[in-house]
């Protein structure tokens, strides 16, 4: 709670009382803070993902392989039947 109050005080100073030269510096400090928060959240989400049951990963891999195989199947080109193919089929 203490840090929240300090953060609100700094934010209030930034919005209402800071001169232009200090605003540029504080903007960079806020950007570094935001990047740090996102980095911590990314690490925590990765740790949470690793703790997931293995069935989720198997299902995800099966879904990716299924979509990939459907994509390849839809991209297949139909082969034109040549005269030789038609003659070979008559013989069987």
UniProtKB/TrEMBL annotation:
<keyword id="KW-0812">Transmembrane</keyword>
<protein>
    <submittedName>
        <fullName>DUF3165 family protein</fullName>
    </submittedName>
</protein>
<keyword id="KW-0472">Membrane</keyword>
<dbReference type="InterPro" id="IPR021506">
    <property type="entry name" value="DUF3165"/>
</dbReference>
<keyword id="KW-1133">Transmembrane helix</keyword>
<feature type="transmembrane region" description="Helical">
    <location>
        <begin position="29"/>
        <end position="50"/>
    </location>
</feature>
<dbReference type="Pfam" id="PF11364">
    <property type="entry name" value="DUF3165"/>
</dbReference>
<feature type="transmembrane region" description="Helical">
    <location>
        <begin position="6"/>
        <end position="22"/>
    </location>
</feature>
């Amino acid at each position: 709670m203490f840090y929240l109050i300090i953060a609100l005080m700094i934010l209030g100073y930034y919005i209402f009382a800071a001169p232009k030269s200090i605003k540029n510096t504080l903007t960079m400090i806020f950007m570094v803070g935001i990047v740090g928060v996102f980095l911590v959240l990314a690490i925590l989400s990765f740790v949470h993902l690793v703790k997931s049951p293995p069935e989720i990963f198997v299902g995800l891999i099966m879904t990716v392989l299924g979509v990939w195989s459907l994509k390849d199947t839809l991209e297949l080109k139909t082969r034109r039947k040549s005269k030789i193919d038609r003659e070979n089929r008559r013989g069987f």
